[in-house]
Amino acid sequence: MENILIPEQQQLIDDGKRLLAFVKKNPPDGFSDYSFLVAPFAKAYEGYLKDLFLKLNLISKKQYFSDYFRVGKVLNPALQHKSWSVFRKLKEGEFAAEIAETLWRAWKEGRNLIFHYFPHNLQRISLDEAERRINTILTAIETSSRIPALHGKNSQDDN
Is 91:2 a contact under the CB 8 Å cutoff? Predict the structure, then answer.
């Protein structure tokens, strides 16, 4: 992933991999939730998505740098009817609907359901489930990094 992520994002992935390897080698007793293992991957994923959306001209530089821009809001398929919906733009554009679905699924499972507290459903996850969600995030990054527009003249890097 070194050629896909910026150094800060790659460092988070590397930290997460080291943390996961440590926990697997030294299994702790008594953890009711292994969500903490997903955290560095989810943080890197959020940064990656912001970079991806900017490169694909799906968000503006103002949105990219805003403290108020929310990836989960613009990527949520339930809000795709809105003009600012990145999910809709991905789905309707040259990027293919499955990319939009893949990115959303990884966001929802690897970020939203991990870090939000729902009194009726705490979303406690096992070590195996944490590893599955980590792999979902990594697969989404890898898959979306192959979008042809990222390697052509359509990205803002060329502007």
Answer: no
| Residue 157, pLDDT above cutoff 80 | no
pTM for the full predicted model: 0.88
123-127 long-range contacts, Cβ below 8 Å, gap at least 24?
A: 123/35, 124/32, 124/33, 124/35, 125/33, 125/34, 125/35, 125/38, 126/34, 127/23, 127/24, 127/27, 127/34, 127/37
**Distance between CA atoms of 123 and 119, rounded to whole angstroms?**
10
* C-beta separation of 107 from 49 below 8 A: yes
Q: Which residues have C-beta within 8 Å of that of residue 153, sequence separation ≥ 6?
A: none
Whole-Å CA distances, 116 to 40, 121, 123 = 16, 10, 9
Domain boundaries, the chain: 7-158
Q: How many of the other CB atoms lie within 10 Å of CB of 110?
A: 26
Residue 129 Cα to chain centre, angstroms: 17
